[in-house]
Specification:
Blueprint (H helix, E strand, L loop, with lengths): L1 H19 L1 E2 L21 E11 L6 H8 L6 E4 L2 H12 L3 E12 L2 E10 L2 E8 L3 H11 L8 H16 L7 E8 L6 E9 L5 E8 L6 H7 L8 E2 L1 H10 L3 H9 L6 H11 E2 L10 H17 L6 E11 L2 E9 L5 E8 L6 H8 L9 H8 L9 H6 L7 E10 L2 E9 L5 E8 L6 H5 L12 H14 L8 E7 L4 E7 L7 E8 L5 E12 L19 E10 L3 E10 L8 E15 L7 E18 L6 E15 L12 E15 L10 E10 L3 H4 L9 H4 L6 E12 L6 E13 L12 E4 L13 E4 L27 E14 L5 E14 L11 E12 L3 E10 L15 E8 L5
Parallel strand pairs: 1-4, 2-5, 6-8, 9-13, 14-16, 17-19, 31-32
Antiparallel strand pairs: 2-3, 4-5, 7-8, 10-11, 12-13, 15-16, 18-19, 20-21, 21-22, 22-23, 23-24, 24-25, 25-26, 26-27, 27-28, 28-29, 29-30, 30-33, 33-34, 34-35, 35-36, 36-37
Length: 898
């Protein structure tokens, strides 16, 4: 027995040694084999590695493979020994080798010559998908990234799992992915891989079942699951029809004789089961969104005083092939209230000052969300406790609310404060401005080196950088590196450029009218200084924040407009004084349809404007004041009567001094969530009638309106407020008013510069010159205008002298993507236009309501589509139109300020 054991042990030793190293001839080599008797497997021998070679490689580098083995020339190794087995393990561990052998090709004394004989694993040469579209295929290839990688089972399994998860996240919970491998005959040692994707139908949520909520209703709980919504259902009529069909005389008798009272809870359950109008919310189930919703639900309970609220369990179960039910089990716990609140560690400010900032009183409902907001950062008011310190340099300030006693439903809090040292800003830098010059960015930064740290100035800087429009507002991030030892902080603003130049290009053949089209270019980051530096041309010189606008518009021979403007926002380079210059020329013609080459009349406006605006610091530095001088020539060629003038041909001149005072503190120029934009604009001409006593109402219109005499007042105010506790939902409230007046009765009201109301508010659709175009959705373009309709061109001025307009919008942000920002809106608005102050009645307004959508693309600006319904008649402006205005569609381009 003992002898048999020894023989078996020797055989095992021999087998292990031969697994480590083989003597003989490689299938890749013609060298003579080594005599096997030269090695004794039972007695390891020491050798010096004289040479190492590798064969069988297709794509791998020989030097790299030898290096990976860990064997080196001149190394002393034992054969058999750990060096050989270790080399084999290391090569196998790389996961790129299919088979490996270490052969001895020659032994000379103490020198040994080694050969690594390898077989590489095949690689993925091509990746194909079936059952997906082109966009999904591109995203999936970026997601798995296996082309060129070694074929391994774990790589295939991970890719298959990631592809399935990609569609599960989109609501396709039943997605199946099959993997098909084929040898690629076009490349050596390569494999083609095909993923066959069967998404099946999208799985919707049939019902969300909530258990354990006693104090807060199912409706409110489900409302907080913002991304986990039930599928719309309208089974009420089907349910009633089924009940009627299945009713028998006996069941009807029992229902009448033995009827039981129906509770409110039973009615709610019945309506919830058969009636759910949820058409504007996605009802797909996404696990990640559901986890976020559960966190939001607990936070909601905490904000209502339920400090111990928790979700005990949640699950999903199949309702049908394409629907599931979601179950949420809650434990609400007790509702708590604040009792005693004390402060410790505060030396700079007294308790009462901190208590006033906290704005939480004894007896208030315990609200974790409000507590954290009032302690650390309140984005709406900015007057939290932390701002009291951090606006005064105490960057390291920290306040920690500790529950020191919980008794019954009352909680005592102790606010433990660390004030820290007063911090000075050491350096301020910017990063990521690849197109925009440093000085353009740095001049908007309010927090500067040498100043005490100020959180409000930091927030203001982020706002100012967002307002430039050159950077993605969602990605502007201050990177602060504080140093406690020397009480300093270094600040770097991380920016990401986004394209903001805009192009407007459209064209076509308008038949009788001829060529119809528009070419518009707006360069929002133009640079006159860099015209000679061709490295800054993209495609024109950029980087200095100047705005160059060029526009040509034509509607055949009936209308043409040419304009150019240039604005330097920091004229002089030291202060935000904006200098602007613009020139425009417009022509409007009346064409004889019987003789297209013959003009019945034309109206031309040529004008130039020079303006200067600057920021002011009083009442605060959100205010802007601007002044401009404008000269315009109105040239009538058989066109004067259209505006109510007595002469068909002639010329009028306008020289105005324009002033605007505005305050703008909105947080985002594309999709504002917070703040306001208020402006008062005035225009004054010289009092020509005072200077020329020979002109009055009795004078011919050619003399009376040779130099237009008027004053105009325009007031616009817009307010933005987030609602529903979300940054996506915003209410926009706007009011607009305009007043046109004269300096007295001697000349009277001018027929130009009046207000035209109704429709989309876009000028180029109507080619209206010398007028203020104001939109009012739900009504046709320009219909709410005195002197319009059948009276147009009959000697009465076209346009009103006073208008009012009020708008309320509820907006929802669908996509904040800077390359395509999308939001939906619902609106209600009202307005009117009066031809004289005697008729003015601010309560007599034309009302409308509707819905719309907006998409902002940097290359094209803001595009909009609205559907509005006008509730009132416009018979006082056009007696041919009786009854409500009805439904109207409106398409808009660009921001509509009024």
């Amino acid at each position: 027995m003992k002898r048999s054991t020894i023989i078996l042990f020797l055989l095992m030793i021999s087998g292990i040694a031969e697994a480590q190293i083989r003597l003989g001839q490689s299938r890749f080599s013609s060298s003579k084999p080594v005599d096997i008797l030269e090695l004794n497997y039972s007695k390891p021998q020491k050798f010096r590695i004289a040479e190492i070679k590798a064969v069988g490689l297709a794509t791998l580098d020989e030097v790299a493979v030898v290096s990976l083995s860990g064997l080196r020339v001149d190394d002393q190794i034992s054969v058999p020994g750990d060096a050989i087995s270790g080399a084999l393990k290391r090569l196998w561990g790389q996961g790129i080798i299919g088979d490996v052998k270490i052969l001895v090709t020659k032994i000379e004394g103490d020198d040994i010559y080694l050969l690594l004989e390898l077989t590489e694993r095949p690689r993925f040469s091509r990746v194909e998908f079936t059952g997906v579209n082109k966009t999904q295929e591109g995203e999936l290839k970026d997601k798995i990234k296996i082309r060129g990688r070694v074929v391994r089972d774990d790589v295939l399994a991970t890719s298959q799992r990631n592809i399935r998860q990609y569609f599960v996240d989109k609501g396709f919970l039943n997605t199946e992915v099959k993997v098909i491998q084929e040898r690629d005959t076009t490349l050596p040692n390569s494999v083609k891989i095909k993923f066959d994707v069967d998404r099946k139908s999208k799985v919707k949520i049939n019902e969300v079942l909530v258990f354990g909520n006693e104090e807060i209703s199912d409706k409110k709980v489900k409302g907080k699951l913002k991304n986990t919504k039930e599928h719309p259902r309208l089974h009420f009529f089907r349910e009633m029809a089924s009940r009627i069909t299945n009713t028998t005389p006996q069941s009807a008798k029992e229902a009448i004789v033995y009827r039981n009272p129906v509770t409110d809870e039973e009615i709610k359950r019945y309506m919830n089961k058969n009636f759910k109008l949820n058409f504007f919310n996605a009802s797909k189930y996404v696990a990640k969104d559901f986890r976020e919703d559960k966190d939001n639900l607990v936070s909601f309970y905490n904000s209502r005083g339920y400090r111990d609220a928790e979700i005990l369990a949640d699950s999903t179960f199949r309702h049908s092939d394409n629907t599931i039910n979601v179950v949420v089990s809650l434990e609400e716990g007790k509702k708590y209230y604040y009792r005693n609140i004390t402060f410790v560690g505060n030396y700079l400010h007294e308790d009462q000052i901190l208590q006033n900032r906290l704005n939480i009183e004894k007896g208030d409902v315990y609200d974790k969300e409000k507590l954290q907001k009032r302690l650390n950062y309140d984005p709406q008011k900015g007057d939290d406790v932390s701002s009291l310190y951090q606006d005064d340099g105490y960057l390291f300030f920290n306040i920690d609310p500790v529950e020191v006693m919980v008794q019954g439903d009352s909680i005592d809090l102790e606010m433990r404060i660390f004030e820290g040292p007063q911090v000075t800003v050491n350096s301020v830098s910017i990063q990521g401005n690849e197109r925009t010059s440093d000085h353009v960015v740095m001049r908007e930064i309010r927090i500067l080196p040498g100043q005490k740290f100020n959180r409000s100035l930091l927030v203001r800087t982020i706002r100012e950088l967002s307002q430039l429009g050159y950077f993605d507002p969602e990605k502007i991030e201050p990177d602060m590196r504080p140093n406690f030892e020397d009480a300093t902080v270094d600040i770097t603003f991380i920016l990401e450029e986004r394209p903001n130049d805009q192009i407007e290009l459209s064209g076509g053949w308008g038949g009788f009218f001829g060529f119809v089209g528009t070419v518009g270019l707006v360069f929002n980051n133009f640079s006159l200084k860099n015209i000679g530096d061709f490295s800054k041309w993209r495609p024109l010189p950029v980087g200095d924040g100047q705005k160059l606008s060029l526009r040509v518009q034509a509607n055949g021979r009936t209308f043409q407009n040419y304009s150019i403007s240039l604005t330097e926002p920091w004229f002089g380079g030291k202060k935000p004084n904006a200098l602007s210059f613009s020139f425009n020329h417009s022509v409007q013609r009346s064409i004889d349809f019987r003789n297209p080459g013959q003009d019945l009349g034309a109206f031309r406006i040529t004008g130039a404007t020079l303006g200067l605006s600057k920021r002011v610091t009083w009442p605060d530095d959100y205010f802007m004041v601007s002044h401009s001088l404008q000269y315009q020539v109105y040239d009538f060629d058989r066109f004067g009567t259209t505006f109510g003038l007595s002469f068909p041909t002639g010329r009028a001149n306008s020289f105005t001094f324009n002033n605007t005072i505005a305050r703008n503190n909105i947080d985002n120029p594309i999709y504002p969530r917070l703040g306001s934009n208020i402006s008062l604009a005035t225009s004054f001409t010289p009092p020509y009638a005072t200077l020329n006593q020979n002109v009055d109402r009795e004078s011919p219109d050619e003399e009376r309106f040779k130099w237009l005499e008027y004053h105009k007042w325009m007031f616009d105010a817009t307010f933005y407020t987030p609602v529903f506790g979300s940054s996506k939902w915003v209410i926009s409230a706007r009011t607009h008013m305009g007043f046109l007046g004269s300096y007295g009765d001697r000349i009277g009201m001018i027929p130009l510069e009046r207000f035209v109301l109704g429709g989309d508010g876009m000028n180029f659709n109507n080619f209206a010159l010398g007028q203020e175009i104001i939109g009012l959705r739900g009504y046709e373009n320009q219909v709410i205008t005195p002197g319009g309709g059948p009276l147009r061109g009959q000697g009465q001025p076209f346009g009103g002298v006073v208008y009012n307009k009020h708008v309320m919008e509820l907006r929802f942000l669908v996509s904040p993507n800077p390359s395509a920002t999308i939001f939906l809106l619902g609106f209600a608005e009202a307005g009117n236009n009066w031809g004289s102050y005697a008729d003015y009645n601010p309560y007599n307004l034309k009302k409308s309501a509707g819905v719309g959508a907006r998409i902002f693309m940097p290359a094209f600006g803001l595009l909009g589509l609205d559907w509005g319904y006008g509730f009132d008649s416009i018979s006082e402006f056009d007696n041919r139109q009786q009854g409500p205005s009805g439904a109207q569609f409106h398409f808009t381009i660009g921001q509509q300020f009024r």
